[in-house]
Amino acid sequence: MEFFRFRKDIPFMQRALVFNAISLITFLAAVFFLVHRGLHLSVEFTGGTVIEVQYPGAVPLDPVRNTLGKLGYADAQVQNFGSSRDVLIRLPLKTGYTSAQQSEQVMGALKADTPEVQLQRVEFVGPQVGKELATDGLLALACVVVGIVIYLSFRFEWKYAVAGVIANLHDVVIILGFFAFFQWEFSLSVLAAVLAVLGYSVNESVVIFDRIRETFRRERKMSVIEVINHAITSTMSRTIITHGCTQMMVLSMFLFGGPTLHYFALALTVGILFGIYSSVFVAAALAMWFGVKREDLLKEKKDRVDPNDPNAGAQV
Amino acid sequence: MNRYPLWKYAVMLVALVIGLVYTLPNLYGEAPAVQVSSGKATVRLDATTLASVEAALAGNQIKPTAVTFDNSQNNANIRVRLTDTDTQLRVKDLLQKSLNSDPNDPQYIVALNLQSASPNWLTALRALPMYLGLDLRGGVHFLLQVDMAGALNKKLDSDASDVRTLLRDNNVRDGGVNRVNQSVVVNLADQATADAALKLLSRSVSELQWASQPNTGADGGVQLVGTFTPAVQRAVQDAALKQNITTLHNRVNELGVAEPVIQQQGTDRIVVELPGVQDTAKAKDIIGRTATLEARLADPVNTHPNPNDPVPPGDELFTQGNQVPVLLRKQVIFTGDRIIDASAGFDEHQRPSVNIRLDSAGGRAVRSVSRDNIGKPMAMVLFERGKGEVLTVATIQSELGDRFQITGQPTPQAATDLALLLRAGSLAAPMEIIEERTIGPSLGADNIKKGFHSVVWGFAAIAVFMIAYYMLFGVISMIGLSVNLLLLVAVLSMLQATLTLPGIAAIALALGMAIDANVLINERVREELRHGAPPQLAIQNGYEHAWATILDSNVTTLIAGLALLAFGSGPVRGFAMVHCIGILTSMFSAVFFSRGVVNFWYGGKKKLKSLSIGQVWRPQTAGAGAAYAGNSLGSDDDATDTAQAIAATKATAKANPKAGAKAAAGAQGRAKPTVRRRNAPGTPASSASTPEKPGSSR
Lengths: 316, 698
Known about the structure:
The structure holds two protein chains of two kinds. By secondary structure, chain A is α+β, with helices and mostly antiparallel strands. Chain A is built from ten helices and six strands, in the order αβαβαββαβααβαααα. Chain A folds into two domains: 13-40 and 129-297, Multidrug efflux transporter AcrB transmembrane fold (Up-down Bundle); 48-125, 2-Layer Sandwich (Alpha-Beta Plaits). In chain A, strand 3 and strand 4 form a beta hairpin. The model of chain B is unreliable at 621-698 (pLDDT under 50). Classes of the chains: A alpha+beta, B alpha+beta. At the A-B interface, helix 4, strand 5, helix 5, helix 7 and helix 8 of A face helix 9, strand 21, helix 12, helix 13 and helix 14 of B. Strand 5 of chain A pairs antiparallel with strand 21 (431-439) of chain B.
């Protein structure tokens, strides 16, 4: 089996402008939704109490809401979670009540209605934790970006580093945009997924950059555009197969991992798809526009000897 | 070519064996066990307890699988591993009876527990199963924030009172000593007094840093401001955190939880995890309980009464040590939360002593009581589960203040124990629950199943695809990936990491990403074959070329992982840890190990005609072999490239691409790439330059 039979290099870079326009529009849309709708943050970030209960059979949500309303939790969110038997209740922070009081109160009321209801999980997060998580997340992001720029500048050149990081930050924003648009729940594990995608998608760009460098070395007559096209085309099969395999794993998490891994897998899926797109079309094109040259990567090793020294370079 | 020296195969074998040994304990599951732990802060587990447990078992002809004594500082316990749950229940009742003579006042907690069922030889190798996180086994998780400002204030308050006493004793007139925020401020009338006071304070209250400044208030004069030096402040915070953890341990022990986790997180937080506990309300009640230590005067006339003596009015009967009765007054002098510090030391006669420091309110109370009761006994009582146990009865020798000593301990060890018990009665600083999670046990089991299924099905899907696509090389890739999984689990078990659901997700993701290295290698080998390299050389160059890429891409991923590890908390940290270890093991397994297998299979076969790596499609077979033949074998820079082959075939391909492809597929259709040497028909195909690419001829 051989899926990818490219007879000649695909002229990706000739269409770079179109690809980047698409990417820019997606990016702007993502930013728009992020600003306009905002993220649907989980209790880990906002603080509050989450109670997960299980009923013996399917349960309509309205009576549950009414019960909670009677307790003074009119603004509680009640939703099904995984199956129609599982109900997730989110209570906002309430001053003067501890989470234990809140959950006991709620469980008491629910048990009064349906004695068989079972408490599956309670999660309470104080308000100060959420803030910290957000700053820690941003710090982690900054560290990843700086670390990758330094490493790539050292291994390649700053143009590649900047191109790679821009392309991948744009992935991150697009993932966040998806979460804002669909109002998927943004939890800690999603944050982990987003940061993992950052590393993963840079990895993709690196594979292409690596090929560009190699092609520069080998094909001395090719123009920059040809070199990039060639590099992308020859790594294409690897790109698709690798991401296909990773996606199979992610899909398996999505299908079998249950509600906890649901959004984690979703974030990874979006990240993988846009990771490919951005590394192939955006990172390479940006590198091209930054003006990468053969000479940047193939610095001739100059002889560090004194030209006036008659014995310089003499070897026995 | 493509042969590993023997030591490399040895390394592979050793890695495989280590991986297997340390992964094994995770597969054995858990066996029923009975756990014995101390039921009171005053009761310690030791060799005699172990002996009595063993004697009790032997006396009833019960043969346990193993009896282990874990003598850790905070959570000493004895575990008896058994074969089935029936015996487990029997042993529990048996030990309950034989260890606790008085069922109403149990000395030991005997609880049902589960223990790793791995055989003893694995345990002897320190090969232990991974610890399952709460989301996988169910239980309660609390994150407590320690109010460090509170701890410092408590200490500063006591320092302020010390200063007051000190100035009065030395006849320095002050205009008031107060704690202002995180400092002690002494108001003095003029510079001369201030100098005298400064000299005095710098010598005697040396844990504060003293500085003088003019008083800006209405009274004028000079102020001395004492603040903690950073070192002292750190020491105070450390001590406060440690004491809170010790206290929490003692309180949690009361719940009889099998394996509580009480850990410091960051500088001012404590994580409490109680697996298996479902009753959060009770857990919180016990964790948040107030002081349990009381100081009282003992009855001076009849301190140790006979068992049948009536209890006089105003007195209460307690016991000390081995059921020695003690009569104490009902009136409480001070409670445990007044104790700022209790430490073991020696008095001026080099006898072991316990030095106690109280806060100012406690100090005042002790002073007034002790002044009137010199020569009479005073006792410390520790309350556990509503029952008081007298820790010590000591005679008041003189008027006491906020610092005093208790002597009479037989050994320094006893003094240390007493100091610990005195501290255990109170929290050094108030705590607040800032995060709480309860996970039901069924949800935990469900999560394990889900995590396991995602890994298995994802792995299976990848295996089917890789083997179908890359044939034998696919099989080798999957061997590499399995070794990766093995090593990953082994390393996590060695580190005794806590496995959580995000951790399982990270394992799945690590595998999904690790396959990247194998795909890179396989694609490279195919590419080399496509350019006409002989099989052995294709393997060598394929691996060599892929390695640089694998290294670069893994390092960038590792950077992301490390940043997550550094800044993440809770589930993110667990995820990041697995992620980072996964990257490292994947480099080993995908590059070193899979190469080893390839070498083992193909290495040294001189007349190797083909590799089982699936079909290698070529634009056109012609020219490839020739192009390769023209190069010196093995030189990297001159290795052939698709571009050349493409250029060579462009003319034909353009004229009739379909026919060309068909011809190529026909020629190579057996999925067995062979390298044939042919004379290329269209060598330097300069005439084939296409209009879109001017100047691409070469």
